[in-house]
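Format notes (please read before filing issues)

Several people have asked whether sequences and C-alpha cells are stored in separate files. They are not. Every record keeps both together, in the order shown below: the sequence lines, then the C-alpha cell lines. Line labels are part of the format and must not be stripped during preprocessing.
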Amino acid sequence: MRNFNYSKIKDLKWDSDILSLIAAIYKEAGKQEMYLKQRPEELEKLVEIAKIQSTEASNAIEGIVTTNTRIKQLVEDKTTPRNRDEQEIAGYRDVLSIIHESFDAIPITVNYILQLHKILYGHLNNPMAGRTKSVQNYISATYPDGRVEVLFTPLDPFETPTALESICNEYNRIIGNMEVEPLIAIPIFIHDFLCIHPFNDGNGRMSRLLTTLLLYRSGFYVGKYISLEAKIAKSKDLYYHSLHQSQLGWHEEKEDVLPFIKYLLEIILSSYKDFSERFALVETKLPAIEIVRRASMNKIGRFKKQDIREQCPSLSISSIEGSLKKLVELGELKKEGSGKSTCYYRLK
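Then the structure lines:
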C-alpha cells in the first residue's frame, strides 16, 4: 500500500496559476466577511437556494434525480421520500444540514466520516452504511457504444481502513501545525479520498460533502451561499478529466495532483465571485424590474427564469416573472420556447 506524507507538500513548487487562485480566493473571502456583517437577513435567502441546488446537483451527478418541486419539498423537509432516489436525496440533505449547523464540532476522523456516510444512507436499508467497502470497486467510463473502460483501480478493501485513517491523521497534523496552506491541503485530501474510494457506494457525494466541511473548518464559507456542487455538475466533464489526470501514478506515489487542485480552486473562486454579484443585487434597494435587468446583464447567451431566481433571492417568483415580461415588452429581452423550456436572451 502506498504511504501518505503530507509534509512533503510544503516542499513542492506551485506554479503562478495556483498562487494567483489562492490569493484571489483570500481576497474574495475577506469581501464576503464584510458583506455578511452588512446584510445578514437578506443573505439567508441565498442559504436556502444553495441547499436546494447542492442537494439536487450532487445527486444528479450520480444519476439520482426527482422533480424540481419534490427536491424543494425534500430539502425543506416538508415531505417524505417516495422512492429510492428520493431516499438518497433526503440522506444528502441530512448530512449537508449537519455540516451547515455543526461543522466546527465535526473533526476529520475516520469515525466521523463513517457516521456521516451512515446518515447519508439513513433513509435506506443499506447494510454497508457507515462501513468501508467489502468488495473491490473501480472508476470506469461507459462509452456510447456500450463499451466500459476501467480508468482507475482504487485501493483493495483490506487496505482501505488504514489508508483512510492515514489521510485523516496527515491532514489534521499539517493543518494543526500550520505546515501547509489549507487551500492546497483540502484538494489533496479530497483527491486521496477519491483514489481510496472507501465505500461500496456514495464516494462522489461524500467527497463533495467533505469538501464543504473542510472549507468551512478552514474559514471558507462560500458553499453556504453558493452551491459548489452545482458548479461541479455544470463542469462535470472537466471535473472527471482533471481527476483522471491527477490519478495517474497514484499507487506509485508519482501522481501530479496539480490538475485537480487547480480545478477545485477555480470552482471555489468562481463561487465567491457569484456571491459578490448576488450580494450587489441584494445590497441596493431597487425596483424589481431594475434588479432583474441588472441580473440579466450578467448573463451571456440564453438563460432561464431559474437563473435569475438564483441571482435575485430577495425577489419572489411572481416579481421575477412580471419583470421578465416587462423587459420583453420593452424590447430588452427576447423570449423563446414555452413551459419548462422557456428561455431569454438580451437584445440590447
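For reference, the curators noted about this record: The chain has 14 helices and four strands. The longest strand covers residues 148-152.
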